[in-house]
Amino acid sequence: MEGGAQRLDKLRAWLDTRIGLKDLEKLARKKEVPVHRHTVWYYLGGMTLFLFMVQVSTGILLLLYYRPSAEEAFESVQFLMAEVQFGWLIRSVHAWASNLMIFTLFVHLFSVLFLKAYRPPREVTWFSGVALMGLAMGFGFTGYLLPWNELAYFATKVGTEITGAVPVMGPFLGRLLRGGDDVTGATLTRFYGIHVAILPLAATALVGLHLYLVQRHGMSVPLDVERSGGAGRRMPFVPNFMLRDLVGWLAALAVLAALAAFFPAELGKKADPFLSAPAGIKPEWYFMFMFQSLKYLPAHILGIEGEIVGIVGFGLGGLFLLLVPFLDRRTARGEPSRLFTWIGIAIIAYMLLFTYLGYTASATK
CB–CB of 51/139 below 8 Å? Predict the structure, then answer.
């Protein structure tokens, strides 16, 4: 035992000389987490990061077998699920982790909105968080096509048609994504490149920026807690908060494993561009509220195509969300701001209602 401790001390000294281990330990021990009645919401950021790491690790394993071409993509996924030991489990964990990651991102984003954690000097932290939300949805959109099955093919066709309807830049973006006028093998190759190279690169940079800013500014204390003087208690991040984080990660891993085992990802039929789209085709749940909203719009609004009005509306909605730190001037001055709380509640209610309608309304409406 004594010899083992000496070897460990030597290893620590070796690492400290080369990478400044003591400085890193000092930095970690310096970080503290405010303790108050809203502290539970602080765990969502770490939970999202954990699910992102699951996505990266399972995605790398899937890359070992996946072949990104229209002729081989479906068969390679089929081989992975049927012939590779635990291949079906890895793919199912990857699929479920993406859904859970986007769900926790939504909850994290709105909890930050309600707790007014975008107050100065955390505006850039908010911007990077909203951008990460957009990237996560981009991961979902591009990854959906990769199995090259019937549902993914036609859902991508609808999704890229909507992108093509964006005013001014739409036709260019549509052709850029598709690699031509239609969804083909070129689209699959482009989506693969975006999914495994461009988006991970951007996400890694943004996650790094986001974590650096959280480290620099510390965790925000809600305005009402701060005004009532209840922000005095704090706990060390290492090891107290980190151990609680780990418990949450283990719970998320258990949920993920159960979902993957009992509800494994399906593959369906191979895409056939010469067949007509199946009835009632729907996007992933996180796009459903937008998809259903566009279906309810009339053909023309004030002489403009209804779909274009809807797309511009969602674009402006996203811009509004991004600029909340600049629009909510009362919060910036440290004053209570109920207006933006109610706006957040209205956005959630809208998303829930139209998502519900998307899954329950008749496919012909």
Answer: no
**Length of the chain (residues):** 365
* Secondary structure (DSSP) of 263-283: SPPP--SBP-TTSPPPTT---
Angle formed by the axes of helices 123-145 and 185-193, to 10°? Answer: 150
Q: Which long-range contacts (CB under 8 A, 24 or more apart) does 208-215 make?
A: 209/124, 209/128, 210/125, 210/128, 210/129, 210/132, 213/122, 213/124, 213/125, 213/128, 214/45, 214/125, 215/27, 215/31
What are the phi and psi torsion angles at 8 (to 5°)?
-65, -40
pTM of the model: 0.91
Please provide residue 189's backbone torsions phi and psi, each rounded to the nearest 5 degrees. Answer: -65, -40
DSSP characters over 220-235: PPPHHHHHTT----EE
What digits encode the pLDDT tens for the residues 17-60?
Answer: 888 888 878 877 788 899 988 999 999 999 999 999 999 999 99
Residues 6+ positions from 241 with CB-CB distance below 8 Å: 33, 42, 235
Concatenating the DSSP letter of every residue in 233-251 gives -EEEIIIIIHHHHHHHHHH
Per-residue model confidence as pLDDT tens digits over 312-357: 999 999 999 999 999 999 999 989 889 999 999 999 999 999 999 9
